[in-house]
Amino acid sequence: MRLTRAAEYAIRCVIYLSRQGQSVLTSRQEIAEQADIPAHFLAKIAQDLAKAGLIEIRQGARGGFLLSKNPADVTLLEVVETMIGEISLNDCVARPSGCKISPCCSVHRVWLDARDQLRDSLRRVSFDQLIADASCFPSYPKALLETEGLETPLSARNDLQ
Amino acid sequence: MRLTRAAEYAIRCVIYLSRQGQSVLTSRQEIAEQADIPAHFLAKIAQDLAKAGLIEIRQGARGGFLLSKNPADVTLLEVVETMIGEISLNDCVARPSGCKISPCCSVHRVWLDARDQLRDSLRRVSFDQLIADASCFPSYPKALLETEGLETPLSARNDLQ
DNA sequence: AATATATGAGACCTTATTGATCCTATTTAC
DNA sequence: GTAAATAGGATCAATAAGGTCTCATATATT
Ligand code: SF4
Ligand code: SF4
After folding, report:
1. With contact defined as beta carbons under 8 Å apart, do B135 and B93 qualify?
2. Which residues 58-97 of chain B have a CB within 8 Å of chain A?
3. For B2-20, what is each residue's pLDDT tens digit?
4. CA-to-C1' span, B3 to D8 (A)
5. Is residue B117 a contact partner of residue A118, using CB atoms and an 8 Å limit?
6. How far is the CA of B30 from the C1' of C29 (A)?
7. Which of A23, A74, B104, B149 is deepest in the core (most CB within 10 A)?
8. Residue A135: band (very low, low, confident or very high) from pLDDT cuts 50, 70, 90
9. B contact test, residue of A76, A93, A101 with most B CBs within 10 A
10. Domain residue limits, chain A
11. In this structure, are strands A64-67 and B55-58 parallel, antiparallel, or unpaired?
């Protein structure tokens, strides 16, 4: 297990779509440019996201991608595991049969616990949370900032602490 | 970041040495055979462990490796990070300069927290804990089992739950 | 219907990393 | 001195990651 570039790009893509709003169609080119993702690579990534039911793909002229779920219902874990498979940390967690002593290995149990903890952490983060903060994320639509008057949207969240 | 085979072998090696006891010299061949590690590969791994001060290497006839610290003072995190470098999960955690938006990226903060949590989990596990449980670990010395009468050493720990 | 536009699906390539092996030099017990 | 054992580094094969390219397909527009 390893967080690949493809997973990082997938997260950026879903963030961009979340900011656009659910069911807002956005062209692949726009996402690629704004979120700094190689356009052709994004095409492949989008296919995986679509298979997982996270986004919908519209072909043809004026085609593109759109988020098929509410950002609040999409977790970071879902997007990550769509791209890299289920997180396991160590091979023997994914395939216990690979090491014959796994049933009674004390180290194996540590990896199991650590994996569960990591997956829980990522499951707790949804995309509505991620876009709540402002960010210098390249995809942040300046137009949105101006029309909605969110000059310092970060402050609201900082005040909570 | 990814847990490599080398890291897994390093853990097995340190477990074997911990079972032998601190400062007990053990040949590379014995460790390799008992813990199921390719002998030549173990040589390279041992060099890294030695550089980190975890084990000591004795050259020459009747040479081998020995644990230079008390198993209670060696954590799983130390051994793992000796082999694969500091755990970062995502590249931007290790090198924030790699992504120019990292200072105010909400996803970046999630990776930071998850990394800290994972590292803490591994830091909490020391090798005296790992060898306290019995295990079908190939390196478990049967002789030790017999002399100390630990027929069911796993039960002691299960009773605690 | 024709055309321009945009993505689908998968083949393909390049590079980096991993996992492992091999060979010669050096060290130490005897 | 000789045999036994590791040091240190070169080397190599296999795998995976990251990215590109091409042709097929779908749709809006005219
Ligand atoms: S020895 Fe334990 S931790 Fe290592 S691969 Fe086997 S089961 Fe997993
Ligand atoms: S966008 Fe955020 S999470 Fe992704 S690489 Fe940049 S700082 Fe890290």
Report:
1. no
2. 76, 89-92
3. 899 999 999 999 999 999 9
4. 25
5. yes
6. 19
7. A74
8. low
9. A101
10. 5-86+126-155
11. unpaired
